[in-house]
Amino acid sequence: MACLYYSINDETFTISSFIKKPDADEIIINVLGKPNSKYPLATDEINIDVPIEVVSGWKIDFSSGMFVSNLIDNLYVNKPEFRNDSIIGYKLVTENSNPLSYGFCGFMHAYQRKSRDCKLGVALGVGIDQNIQTKVMFGGSLILGKKERFIMNLGCAISKIKELSNIYYTDRIYKDRVDIVYSEPFKVGWFFGISYNLSK
User: Fold this and answer.
1) pTM of the full predicted structure?
2) Mean pLDDT score, 48-76
3) Which of 44, 46, 86, 105 could form a disulfide with 127 if both were Cys (CB 3.0 to 4.6 A apart)?
4) What share of the chain is helix, strand, coil (3-state, %, to 5)?
5) Count of CB atoms situated within 10 Å of the CB of 149
């Protein structure tokens, strides 16, 4: 009984631990207990790691992944127009076979710590699509899991896109091939991305 008493009596040990700032969703606190010299029966040191889940406050994380968006360059080509097997001119037609752009992206996420496996947050990101166009993205995030986190992102994207200059008409037949000129206005569209959390 004496050993049991000394093992649970806080006067038997000098307990020490470091206070850590919670910069992750889970922190490990090391608890070290050294026997008090006044109690000779307490001879074993205590050295344990205590995992503590952080469930309050806001956190910023970073992730990388891939995205799709409806913001894509509207590219055109000269298509020959025929009459009686002879070329009578050229018409400007779009050459886009894919209505979506896609590429790699990186996000910064801000969210409130919760004990649940799914959390909502906001995301700000930058992406590069298949035409080497830069897109700035802002929206919401659904963060899945506590440690190995996949993140689904949805929101608005802003980007320059190529559009046919207004000096041309797509319903007109031109006598000769046209040297196609584009304008590059900023446009707003949507994006959807899946990314993986890079921080703990």
Assistant:
1) 0.66
2) 83
3) 105
4) 5, 60, 40
5) 21
